[in-house]
Amino acid sequence: MKHQDDFVLSVEGLSKTIGKREIVHDITFQVKAGEIFGFLGPNGAGKTTTIRMLVGLIRPTKGKIIIDGYDLQQDFLQAIRHVGCIVENPELYPYLTGRENLEHFARMVKGISQERIDEVIELVELKERIDDTVKTYSLGMRQRLGIAQALLGKPKLLILDEPTNGLDPAGIRELRTFIRQLATQEGISVFISSHILHEVQLLCDRVAIIHQGKILQTNSVTQLVDQERKVEWIIHPVEKGVQILKQISYVSQVEIIDQARILTHMPPEKIAEVNHQMIDKNIDVTGIKQYKQTLEDIFLKMTEGNQVG
Amino acid sequence: MVSLVYNEFFKIIRKKRMLVVTLILLILIPIFTYAQYQAVDSAMKQLGTSDWRAILQQQIIDQQNRLSSSRIAPEWKEYIRLNIKQQQYYLDHDINPTTPGSPTFMRKFIEQATELFIPLLVVVLAADLVSSEHAGGTIKLLLTRPVPRWKILLSKYLSLLLSISLLLLITAILSYLISGIIFGYRGWDMPVLTGFQMENEHLLTENVHMVPQWKYILMAYGLAWFSAIAVGTITFMVSVLVRGTAASMGAMLAAVVAGTLLSQVAPNWHELKYIAFINLNLTDYLAGNPILVEGMNLPFSLTVLAVWSLVSLIIAFVSFTRRDILA
Amino acid sequence: MKRKTTRTFFHLLAITSFMLFLVGFILAVWDLMYPPKTVAFQSKKTEQPISSEEGLLLGLGDSQTRGIGDSKGLGYFGMVRNQLSKVTHGKSSAVNLAISGQTSNDLLKQMKQDKVLLMVQKAKWISITIGGNDLFRGSGGLEKINLEAAEKSRQQYEKNLKEILTLIYKQNPKALVFIFGLYNPFGDLDLKETSSSLVSQWNETIQKVTSKFDNAIIIPTFDLFQLNPSKYLYTDHFHPNEIGYERMATRLLQVLLDQVAEGGGK
């Protein structure tokens, strides 16, 4: 039953309808081995529903989820074996100690040794507090224990739902380093959902942008960021320049900043070409400034068109 | 599977539910013991201050007289003979039948507790077994293991059965130890009469026979155990269906109490007997207590309880294995 | 790892108790479904044939006919039976169907059983004590006699008695029915007047009902226990004792033996 391909996670045409509302619509994407994949979208875009489908908590209405070559619906046990996950908050049994929690989940999978438990505890640096009950833990410690739990079964795919929620800046940075380390040193693929663009940009190799249940784009973060740049033109006269810019197909979002400056979005390699056109039409170009775009800009640009009102 | 059951049972123990239930027992059993002691005391006063042995002797002679000299229906004769034997035993073993030792208290306690008290404790144990995993969010961790959902639910159910057994054992041990302080610890092999049957408002004595008290206690606890499991199973289903612990516990407590009340308020409403909570008092059949609702007997009650349990289990399993975990 | 040992202990304890109660449950069901029957008991179960060449005496009613209070367990019925058997040289028989604590309601229900009706058909003489339980329960006990309730249960009693007698005569028009009147067991207590007047009211009722049936005879007992209740009553101060029953038996025998000599009812 094993499908042969290079993807750790491959999702095809995934949809979920609850009641009459279609929450997730025809989602397709792939996660490669060893990469950190971001799943970016505003709250209510269908991120959590998708993640719950990925780990088998919700049955998809349509579509296929293949994890490590196994179909999740048909081969649940094989498929889920190599997945570690934290869905939403790291909710563990508060009345058990950290170690008891880990032992509890270790007993549910064959072949997790006591050594592995110790190893994982070491990895998340919880050694001193591991024999205290979880209710005495701070959120950061719970988060780490949650990750320890997810790592117990030596997963090939780690699924984290909004992992930085509620963490302080230091905690967030710590977590980021840790996840990077997991991906590079242990070769684990990480699937992270987030609504914080900045975070995804810093952490992820590739990203899928989801909005209102649909995937708008899937690309590597660098490509996304490089694909279009903000270019500021200082020209005279401004009105004429705007007219010309608006006629060029690959230039978008022409904004007049003040009497001399215009902000546009356009591929950086086309700057010279546009410059030529300006000069041909007798417009004085006194300055061209390139800005490196943030993911936030791209995201806002993509989701803007779909927003009602 | 063994380790799954171990997990679930371990959680029940660590959740301190067992401790709460034990504490309730620790508070209530002394109260019941004292109440029993009061009852005994007033009975003694009513009989006058005379020696109970003399009274017992007199009763035995009276009954022997009746047996030898009158024409009594044969089944009554058998009954009287058994009664005499029982009283003779009291005399021979120097047991005051009005202050009979802690095994008797154990027996009386479980006979009283089967209908309401034990079911309530079971509800406390079982009501949040599944719903607490929802409430705490840990269900998401449980269901993302490489274990099929039905196995997870089954392990929860088995651990419930184990903890119900442990609950009854604790009840037995505590009632023995605590009441023994006042009543003494003797009386395990005291004979007890059983086999009375009620039919059309008549007491049928043809099946009456004597069993040693330890066996009677074992049987009584066995029956109480069965009805406790039935209550536990129904509560288990509610716990699967309802998310909140408070809601599931409230619903079940109301159902158990309503069942007990209904059988007393409306014994002529015959359809009542098909409700599981009316049939909980299985020890009544052992003790020969009158059954309020007509048409109920042991096989009937067992069938009703078994059917309810089975249906509950099916609903629980179907719902648990199919349902989306949305929150 | 002390904790671990405790855990395992609880686990094993739970499993053991599970087994234990399972055994208990099976034992209980087995015991209730297939009760062990004593051998002696089974042999006695066979019904004794009723030899009724000279007639069958049938006892119906409550504890008085049952003989409660007689240390020998005979009661007036046992005494009458013995005497009767002497007179008829063992050719008569007696069956006592009285049940302790019966009220007229209960007796009426009992009368509707096939087995009882069969006996009524065969009986030549029927002796009944009924009403004591109606009276002293229906009126609310002797501490607080409730006249209204007493009147209510008296009316019910009247109706029941009429029905019982009608039932008997429908089955067996020739039977001679002896109904014992009621006595006042509380004649030496504080509420003597009230209780006595109640009892005589009820006795009037018996009179009234019985008068409509030719073959029904009242045997009064009020006078027997009137003056010296404690002498003739059992320690429970409600049932007659041996001597009390003897007096009742004497009265019944006086009428009954006349009938035997004459060879039965009309």
UniProtKB/TrEMBL annotation, chain A:
Can you tell which superkingdom this protein's organism belongs to? Bacteria
Coiled-coil annotation: which residues? none
- Entry keyword set: ATP-binding, Nucleotide-binding, Transport
**Keyword Cell inner membrane attributed:** no
- Output the Pfam families linked to this UniProt entry: ABC_tran
- The ABC transporter domain covers 9-237
* UniProt xrefs under Gene3D superfamilies: P-loop containing nucleotide triphosphate hydrolases (3.40.50.300)
What GO molecular function terms would the record report? Answer: ATP binding; ATP hydrolysis activity
Record-linked InterPro entries: AAA+_ATPase (IPR003593), ABC_transporter-like_ATP-bd (IPR003439), ABC_transporter-like_CS (IPR017871), P-loop_NTPase (IPR027417)
Report the family membership.
Belongs to the ABC transporter superfamily.
Its name, as the record gives it, is: ABC transporter ATP-binding protein
Native organism taxonomy: Bacteria, Bacillati, Bacillota, Bacilli, Bacillales
From TrEMBL, chain B:
GO terms for MF: ABC-type transporter activity
Q: What Gene Ontology cellular component terms go with this record?
A: plasma membrane
Instruction: Write out the entry's keywords from A to Z.
Output: Membrane, Transmembrane, Transmembrane helix
Pfam families, per database record:
ABC2_membrane_2
The lineage's top-level taxon is: Bacteria
Transmembrane segments annotated in the record for this chain: 18-37, 116-136, 157-185, 216-242, 249-266, 300-320
What is the protein named?
Answer: ABC transporter permease
Organism, by scientific name, is: Thermoflavimicrobium daqui
TrEMBL record, chain C:
Matching PANTHER family: SPORE GERMINATION LIPASE LIPC, THIOESTERASE 1/PROTEASE 1/LYSOPHOSPHOLIPASE L1
Looking at the UniProt entry, the stretches that span the membrane are 12-33
Q: Which residues form the SGNH hydrolase-type esterase domain?
A: 60-247
UniProt-recorded Gene Ontology molecular function terms? phosphatidylcholine lysophospholipase activity
From which organism does this entry originate? Thermoflavimicrobium daqui
Name of the protein in its database record: SGNH hydrolase-type esterase domain-containing protein
Which InterPro entries does the UniProt entry name for this protein? Ester_Hydrolysis_Enzymes, SGNH_hydro, SGNH_hydro_sf
Q: Name one Pfam family in it.
A: Lipase_GDSL_2
